Predict the 3D structure of the following.
Amino acid sequence: MPKAEKKQLDVLSSEERKKLEQYLLQTGLTIDLAILLCLFTGLRVGELCGLQWSDIDFENGTLSVKRTVQRIYRNGCSEVLIGSPKSRTSVRTIPVPSFLLTLLEKKKRQDFLYLITGKSKPAEPRTMQYRFQKILKLCGIRKVPFHLLRHTYATDCIAHGFDAKTLSELLGHADASITLNRYVHSSMQMKQEYVKRLQLTG
């Protein structure tokens, strides 16, 4: 029997990304700025929810992933847990684009408050997912999962010349092959650009 192929998620198109970026920049809401942060850092939604202001080093232009937030169900009840990131390699430091640092600095609260809520209690992943779906609808963008932002980030990094090892560390993967197989999607535009470089040797 042939092996079942793993389904790959697609990524936001250039047009979709432009619409999303413009909306997130214009609202002035911290929760929307946090979504934009995912698009430019590849954070998982739980990692984003677990981000505190103390995790952002404005002087060095980085953020540190130290915790994750998830809602779990057991014994018929659900509860929100704040724990360690997914794996050892998920604990990482990521450079943040300067324009985002400038926007974040204007919103900064006390160090040990959570970035999204500005309180001692974090936002829930499903709150971010609901907000994201609402924004997609407002922007006239097709319905896609929040995790697609991570795929979009990875593919954009490769398009801008990032090597697989660097990208795997930014995403918190233990192996670069995971990054290439699951998170990098070559668009037709990228393929055409690469093919243009092929020339006759004579």
User: Anything to note?
Assistant: DSSP finds nine helices and five strands in the chain. The radius of gyration is 18 Å. Residues 2 and 157 are 33 Å apart (CA to CA). The chain has a mean pLDDT of 87.
